[in-house]
From TrEMBL:
Domain of life: Eukaryota
Name this protein carries in UniProt: Alcohol dehydrogenase iron-type/glycerol dehydrogenase GldA domain-containing protein
UniProt cross-references to PANTHER family, sorted A to Z: ALCOHOL DEHYDROGENASE (PTHR11496), HYDROXYACID-OXOACID TRANSHYDROGENASE, MITOCHONDRIAL (PTHR11496:SF83)
Molecular-function GO term, any one: alcohol dehydrogenase (NAD+) activity
Keywords: Oxidoreductase
UniProt organism field: Asterionellopsis glacialis
GO cellular component term, pick one: mitochondrion
Domain Alcohol dehydrogenase iron-type/glycerol dehydrogenase GldA: 36-196
Amino acid sequence: MAMRRSSHLSTVQPEVEALLVPPGMDAVHVGVSLEETALNEIEQLQVSKVFVMANKSSKPLVEDFMTTLESKGILAAPINCDISMGGAEDGLLKACDEAVSVSADCVITIGGGAVQDAGKLVRLWLSAAQSDEKATVKGIQAAQNQDPMPPLPPQICCPNSFAMAELTHVAGLVTKDNVKSGAAHKSMMPNVVIYDSNLSRGMPDWVKFGTALRGVEHAVGAVCHPDATENIRVRALKGLTFVNTGLLGMAKDP
């Protein structure tokens, strides 16, 4: 699929625009309407069973969007709000099983980093699960080693905060034993990211600044990782400048 840009990005500096779409991703849309843009992307992706995952706090903001999906006959199931902060195992496995039960062919994730990561893992499980097989952490992690890796259902990420989990092919979860775990594969890179500022309105300052600092942590980790390529380092350093600008802006006008 050819790379796409939102009309908003035509006004962005060329060197910035070139960095906005990570390898393996189809499009990044900035400053656009979630509903209008997501519906256009759904049409281009040619999917018909959309599974929506969201933070509980984001659910009221997308009620109209859910109604639109249902009216078009492409909503696979009621909105799933089982993912807790950190991506706890129970909620993740429930979402995986629900997505399989409705044969979802697209995942839309609305909210913070835990929901974005969970969406990647749900897609991974959809690619490997048998029809009556219940999801497990071991099963999800085994799925990342499929060879060859089958195509994963597409993911449309709609973040409401700034940790930037939506721009990676790595996904974290927390097991019942409170152990941080996860999976990673290049195929887990989300297909589309939609940044709609309406999703962040009313968010407490501690969430805004806290998740932005997580973005700093992710960027520094990318720069320092022993397997980082020059392309990754350039993107991470550019991302740090964006986060710095954003933090200074939020400090002046939260």
